[in-house]
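Pasting as-is:
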Amino acid sequence: MPSFLHEIFVLLFTNRPDLGVSLARERGGNIPELPHAVVSESKLTEIVPTEYSADLVVTLGEPEAPDYGLIIEVQLGIDPLKKYSWPLYATALRARYHCPTSVLVVSPHEKVARWARRPIALGESEGSVFVPLVVGPDDIAWVTDPKVTRACPELGVLSVLAHGRAQGELEREVAVDVGLAALEGAHELLSVDEERAKVYHDTVHAFLSDWVRTKLEEKMFPAGYEYQSEFVKKHYGRGLEQGLEQGLEQGLEQGLEQGLEKGRQEGRAQQAAHAILAVFEARGMSVPGETRERILECSDLDLLDSWLQRAVTVGRVEAIFLGE
């Protein structure tokens, strides 16, 4: 199950697809100036019977025949298997629409962003690498101008997600202004989209540090603020209630960690198994039913990783199991 933080990021880019396009351009993406940035189908089915789903796909140009495709991936942790799926996403979307594509990886953690920036070797030939566009917290502006957030509320919330928990004395003071600007942007939405305004308002409150939140509450929030949007209530639920009783910071960390851990092991194992099958299919090697079942039922990530490495070079499918 995706975590609350993950879904908030995806929601921002879904509601404002041109925001992802702008960030990709800032990171050096050679994306043309085209109209109609729209969210498209994110399931990237290739010629093999295996389905991959990116977090978000944004196309530029005419929806049915776009001139450019951008895949947006929200990455909260280091996952080596993503180095196999990101190039696949780009080529699958390129094959679908017959247009150039890029992968934009967005992470609220600088350590994860540094890992994601490393080139991905696709083969032994020189220059055969894939490099995603990456946005980490250091690449996201400290947005303190309400004029900016009123024009693009999603940018204000994104700035809070990146900087709302700043620790340095000066940074914390600026983070208060970031939170205030983000709330201005959310308030601007009330007359046109009340539920989205509530979600953004609640998100700003939830993702500030205790110190910044206290300063903000002195100006904006009543004591005992209660979350207004069903989205935040649904994804925070018990974690928030515990946080209010035991200290909001502790409850927030616990809620996020539970959201990240639940289903992570199973999801990564399934992705690794599908990657192995995709390698064999791409090499034109038929996978017997029993072998396919064994691969798909395996939950040992280390074992799956070793199978994946062998799948690239073995002469027959069953050889990936040798040496166990």
